Amino acid sequence: MNPDVNESLARSFGLSAEEYGRVLAIMGRTPSFTELGVFSVMWSEHCSYKSSRVWLKQLPTKAPWVIHGPGENAGVVDIGDGLAAIFKMESHNHPSFIEPYQGAATGVGGIMRDVFTMGARPIALLNALRFGDPSHPKTKRLVAGVVAGIGGYGNCVGVPTVAGETNFHKGYDGNILVNAMCVGLADSDKIFYSAAPSAGLPVVYFGSKTGRDGIHGATMASAEFVEGDEDKRPTVQVGDPFAEKLLIEATLELMATGAVAAIQDMGAAGLTSSSVEMAGKGGVGIELDLDAVPQRETGMTAYEMMLSESQERMLAVLKPGREADGYRVFEKWGLDAAVIGHTTDTGQLVLKHKGETVCDIPLAPLFDDAPCYDRPWTQPVLQPRLSPADVPAPTDWRRAILTLLGCPDGASKRWLWEQYDRHVMADTLHDSSTGADAGIVRVHGAKKALAVTSDCTPRYVQADPYEGGKQAVAEAWRNLTSVGADPIAITDNLNFGNPERPEIMGQIVRATDGMAEACRALDFPVVSGNVSLYNETNGAAIPPTPTVGAVGLLPDYAKRMGFGGMKPGDVVVVIGATVGELGSSLYLRDVLGREEGAPPPVDLDTERRHGDLVRGLIRSGLVHAVHDLSDGGLIVAATEMALASRTGVFIDDLPEGPAHAILFGEDQARYLVALPQHSMDVLDERAADANVPYHVLGRAGGCEVAVTDLFAIDIDDLRAANEAWMPGYMEGP
Amino acid sequence: MRAAIVVFPGINRERDMAIALEASFGTKPRMLWHKDTDIAGVDLIVIPGGFSFGDYLRCGAMAAHSPIMRAVKDHAAKGGYVLGVCNGFQILTEAGILPGALLRNASLRFLSMNTHLRVERADTVFTRRYQSGQTFQAIMAHGDGNYFADDATLDRLESQNLVALRYANKFGAVTPEANLNGSARSIAGILSPNLRVLGLMPHPEDLVDPLMGGTDGKPLFDALAAA
Fold this sequence. Notes:
The complex is a heterodimer. Chain A is of the alpha+beta class. Helices cover about 35% and strands about 25% of the residues of chain A. Chain A is globular. Chain B has a nine-stranded mixed β-sheet with strand order 2-1-3-4-11-10-9-6-7, sandwiched between helices. In chain B, strands 5-8 form a two-stranded antiparallel sheet. In chain B, β3 (about 45), α2 and β4 form a beta-alpha-beta unit. In chain B, α1 (about 15-25) packs across α5 (about 220-225). The termini of chain B are close together.
C-alpha cells in the first residue's frame, strides 16, 4: 500500500511546501503517489538546476563551431571534415562516498551513455577526483574503491582513460568529489537528439532490466549528508560494464539502421526523466504501459519502476514500423527490449500499470513551472594579497622542493592511473604516463587529434571564487595550448555546498561570473555541464570546486607537444612575467602550513597573447618541450620537465625578485619552454611582436635540477620523492 | 597467410588488433562473430583482448563455449595458426587449447603499464623476427594475467621449450621485480607443442607505430604476414 499523499510526504521526497503547492495547482487535485514521485525527481536540484539556472545563463554557449550547446545529453562541437566531438562531465559524488566502487563505476557508465546516446562512439575518458585528508580514516578506502571502480568500468567497456586530476584536502573528508568526463566522436550529420518528433510513434526500452536499485538517487544527490547516511547504500546503483559495452554497440548499430527518431539514456531519475524529456522537448505526450517494462524483480510498483536508477538502460522513439530493425539488433547483442508505449498528441505523461492509470500529468507545466530560484547570496570575503615579504623563504631549499614533489597534491599519481587502460582503441598519443599537460587521442583514420584536460584549483576558488573560476578555465585553456591544440570548448561540473546558505550561493555566483568572463575572453564556449550542490556533511561544505573539462583540436597530430622532450643543451625559458604570487600557493600550504592569501590574478588578455605565442612556436616546430606553470610554480614545472625528459636543468638566471617568490610563485599565463639555441632568434622576434615577456632561465643537461647559489638536487632523488608518496600511502599501514 | 579476428561480446581490442594486422599484412583481417562456425580459408585465427561476456564467471570461461570455439579447436588440431592475446590467451586456456590458467594479478589490481618481454625462442612463426634472448616492449593491460599451472605442467613447458616469452627488465634479466603480475616462472606467453598456437598476456598490437610510443610489437605481425 502506498502512503497517503500530503505535504509531509512531499517534504520527505525533497519538495518544499511552496513546491508542493505548485504541484497541487498544476494537477488541480491531490497527486497520486507515483505522480508525486515524478514531480519530486523532476524538480530535484539534480534534474531541474533550480538554484543554479539563473546563474548558468550567463555562461557563453555559442560559437561558430558549436553544433549543440547545453540542454542535450552532451555538447556537440564541429571539428571539421564532417566530424563532431561530443562530450560532457558529470559528478557522482554522493554515491561514491557511500559505496566508492559502484558509485565511481556507475559515474563512468552514466557519462558514457550521455555521449553515445547522441550517436558518438566514446573515445576517451577523464576523471577529476577530490578526496579528504590522507590521514582521515575513510580516505584510503575511498581512494582504493573509486580508482578500482573507474578502472573496473572503463577498462571493461574498452574506452581509454587518458587524463585527469586528483587532489586531497580535509575539506572533502565527508564529501568526496568524483567527476567523470567522456569524449566521443560522431559524424556531424548523424547526431541523435532526445526530442520525440511526433505523436503515434513506438517507444522502445532496451538494455538491462529494471530493478529496485537507485530509487530516488537524484533526490539523494540534492540533499546534504548527515551522520549515518552510509545507510543509504541501497540507493546506490550497481554497474554492469559488460552490459554497457553491449549497449554501446547495439545503440550505434540501431542508429545506423535509420530506425531511430529520438533517443535518451536512462540516467538520474531513470524512466521518469527519459520519458518526460523526450516527450516534453518534442512537445508531444507519452503513454507508457509499465507492465511491459523488463523487470528484474517481482512485485515492483509503478513508483519504483519510474524512479529506479538501474543502470545500462535506453529509451528510443522509433520511426513508424521500424520495430523489427530494433529487435534484430537487440537480439544480436542479447539485450532485453520491449515496446513499452507510444507518443501521443495529448501533452500528458500517462502511465498505466495493472490496468489502472497511475499517473496523468501535463508535461508542459512540469517543465515550464519547474521551480527556479534566485537565492540570496553574499559577496565572498576575500583574502588579502600577500607580498613576498609576508612569506618566509625556506630554510632548507632541498627539503622544500622534495616536499612539494612528494606532498599528496604534488606527488605522482602513477599508482592510480596504472589501473586505467590508457591504450585500448589504439589511438592514444598522450596519456597520464607520457609527460604532457593534456591527453591526446587521434581521430581514427585522420591526421587530426583531440586534446583533453580537466582542471580546477579549489584553493584558489575558496580564497576568491571569481578569480578561481577564471583560473579554472584559463588553466584548461593553457593545458590544451601546451600540447599544441586549439582550445575549442568546455564542459563544466560545478560542485558546491548548500545553495540555501547565502555564502555558498555567493561562491556559486562569483565562480560562474569568473568562468563566464574567461570563456568569453578566450572564445571557449560551455557546451555541456552538470551542477552538484549540497556537497556538505553535517553542515561543513566542500571547498568550491567548479571543475572544467576541456577539449582542444590538433589539426595535425604530428605537431603535438609534451613536456618530456627537453634535450641536453636546450635553452630553458619561462614565457610570461613572474612577479612571485604566493597567496594560496602550494608552497604556502604544503611547506609552510598556511592556507591564506589572494590567489594569483588572471589577466585574460595576457593569457590569450601568451598562449597564442606558445601555440605558434609549437606549430612552427621551434620547441622541444612545453609545460604549463601551475601548482608549485616554476621550480615544480622545471622538475617535472626534467623528470619526464630524463635530463637535468641548470638554472643560472632567475627573474628579478626574492628567489622563493620567483621559484614557488604561481603567477598565471606562464609556460616553461625548452628549445634549441637556434630557435631563440625566432622566439625573440615573435615575443617582441606579440608583446610577450620571456626570461632565459638556463640550460638543460646533467643529472640535477639546480639553481645557482641555492641548490642542486639529483633527479633520481626528485623522482623518488615524486613517486614514493602514493604507493607508500595506499600500501602502507 | 590470411588472418581473421574472432569477436565475442565484450571483446574490446579487436580494432587495435585489426590495425596491427593490416599494417603488416597489407589487407584487412576478416572479422568473425562468435556465433560463426565457418572459418574456411583462414590460416591465422586471432583472439584479441577485452572482457568477453564481462569475464563474469572466470576470464574467458564463457567465450570458451561459444559456437566458434569448436572450429578454432579443429583449426588448431589440424595445425592451423592461432594467436590469443590477453583475454584471447585466457580463452585459449579455458578452451584447453593451451595449458594452465590466468589468475588475479598478485597485486590484486588491474595493471596498465609498459613491460619488457624476453624472447625465449626465436624459431617460431610468431617470434622469428626477434632474436632469441632479445627483450622487447609491450603494453600490459589486465587484472588477471598471473599465469598458473601445476609444477608438472610447468616442467613440461620448460623441458619442451614451449615458453615463448617471459617478463624481464629492460636489460633482459628475468627478476621478481619485473614479474609484475606474479606469473609462475615469469611466464608471459606459451606455445602449443607444434609451435603453431601462441597465447600471451601483453599487447604487441598496441606498439606497432611510432605514434603509439613504439614499434616493438611489429616484428611479430611482420613475421606472421611473411609466413
